[in-house]
Amino acid sequence: MILIVSELASNAVMHSASQRQFFTVRAEVYPDHVRVEVEDLGGSWRGRHCDGRPHGLDVVEAFTGPDGWGVETTTDGGRVVWARLDLAAGERASSSPPHRGLHYGHHEERPDDRSELLWR
After folding, report:
1. Alpha-carbon distance 1 to 82, whole Å?
2. What is the pairing mode between strands 69-73 and 79-86?
């Protein structure tokens, strides 16, 4: 999971309008999977490299499968890149509601009960 979050966060810093600004990391832990997403300020999106070797999002896809990650555009022109990683039977969380948020950096509670981690 750390490698996936690192890749998504690095992309927000290197390949979006968030460079020298800010981006948001969100994580939700469910009984059978973990979902992480990184929201940046948008900007141009470079397609996949065609040089025959894997790159960052190829590594993410190797962990999640082709349907385990995606890119969405926000209403204000930002971008959310998300990934879902299934938990193995021994790693599964309890049947409690999802645990939201991380406890590093600047933490904000949102009105929709989702926690955010802002890197500034």
Report:
1. 12
2. antiparallel
pLDDT at 102: 42
Give the closest residue to 79 by CA, choosing from 117, 113, 112, 38. Answer: 38
In angstroms, what is the C-alpha Rg of the chain?
A: 15
| CA dist., res. 113 & res. 116, Å (int) | 10
By three-state DSSP, how is residue 78 classified? Answer: coil
Among all chains, which residue has been given the structure tokens 């600047």? 106
Whole-number percent of the chain with pLDDT over 70: 68
Q: Give the span between the Cα atoms of 4 and 56, in whole angstroms.
A: 9
Residues ≥6 apart with Cβ < 8 Å to 27? 5, 34, 35, 36, 37, 100, 101, 102, 117
In this prediction the pTM is 0.72
Q: What's the rounded Cα separation, in Å, for the pair 105 and 116? A: 10
Domains observed in the chain: 2-119 (3.30.565)
